[in-house]
Amino acid sequence: xxxxxxxxxxxxxxxxxxxxxxxxxxxxxxxxxxxxxxxxxxxxxxxxxxxxxxxxxxxxxxxxxxxxxxxxxxxxxxxxxxxxxxxxxxxxxxxxxxxxxxxxxxxxxxxxxxxxxxxxxxxxxxxxxxxxxxxxxxxxxxxxxxxxxxxxxxxxxxxxxxxxxxxxxxxxxxxxxxxxxxxxxxxxxxxxxxxxxxxxxxxxxxxxxxxxxxxxxxxxxxxxxxxxxxxxxxxxxxxxxxx
Length: 243
Prior knowledge:
The chain is α+β, with helices and mostly antiparallel strands. It is 40% helix and 14% strand. It is built from 8 helices and 7 strands.
């Protein structure tokens, strides 16, 4: 059966399967979505399915203005709808949205100061490009999704530490969002392990941190190359993500 947005579905499925491989999944929770049809609809993972098992044909397509989403035959998870429909509806640059609870990002989200300090190249990527939400209000139903969307008025901001919760990433496409998610968790791991030494941190100057962030943004085709290699590995191993 031929499904609309085949490439986008395949890319999302590959992202789900690789996220499980990295142990950045959360049982059958957490969600990735991608805006289609000029922002009128979005693709998202099915309710209560493990990331490692998701295939292209499993991906749901939902109308952004659906009045009764939970009465649909393939109804989305309520928190998936609450967070992702709100972001796609209210944030123009939220083309791809990835929400996860990876361990180091979530540890960072649990600290009184959850801002990632620029102590190396990876942490510097997010200098002045992330925001911390200090107002956790429970599970991400509709009201919580609308509240979170208000933090993204600046298109430069594509990373949010959801205080006491986890990580929220926006991207221009699936590869861009996945790459940002991957590097934030790597950066958070470095930062948390540096804090565990209890030694003084060697924090970069604002000027060098900003210079590094700009250089990384201009680095050619890094997101695409990273994601294409992931798909190549999955295919060589016989993954069913394209089915």
